[in-house]
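I am writing to request your help with a piece of structural work I have in hand. A protein sequence and the structure tokens that stand for its backbone fold form the material at issue. Please examine both parts with care and let me know of anything in them that strikes you as inconsistent. The record follows directly beneath this note.
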Amino acid sequence: MNLKRYIGECCCNKDLKDLGENVTKVFQQLGDVKLQLDSLAHKDDDKVKNIDAIAKFLRSGIYKASNAIKKDELQEFIEANEETIEKEYESVPNGQYYKWNIGKKPENDQSKHRANIYKAYDHSRVVLTTFSDDKGSSDYIMANYVDGYDLPRKFIATQGPLPSTVNDFWRMVVDTNAGIIVTLTKLVEKNVTKCEKYWADEGEKMFGDISVTT
């Protein structure tokens, strides 16, 4: 996750109903952060009096900015607070925090992941249900549900499809009735393929059993 994407994800219209359409709240939603509290407790039990309370605070994952910011002032705000936002971004934990046993299975491990160091968490992964005749097809895709501020599982975060997972990508779109697809990467960046082209320039294209028309 790069800094620009992080800033974009931190800017959302949580309080539009109360503040008006031209106002947005800037806040950080980390999601279910663990921060390895267990290892912290083992290091010095005396210093950690209430692990459950600390965990609850950290896992709440929401930190609100102190003031509302108008949309037309957002860019100026970001530029004026770039160093603070950079430090906040760097503080976001990186690494595995939940089980991903399904993603580690041999049939999924090598062929389903663009970057094999990360896999879909078991508890929130998107489980494919649409039938497919593709060889090696399964219910696994490198994708997890993400809670919105108003509804659980409102979004899906996934990798740029691979040549071997484009059909699975469209199975997921059909299964979840996804209405909007947002691509946060170019197909190729710095001579590295980041995303397989999963659409046709014009007309109809088949992805497995699914027809997509542009």
In short: The beta strands are 11-12, 23-29, 62-64, 69-70, 143-146, 155-158, 188-189, 192-193, 204-207, 210-213.
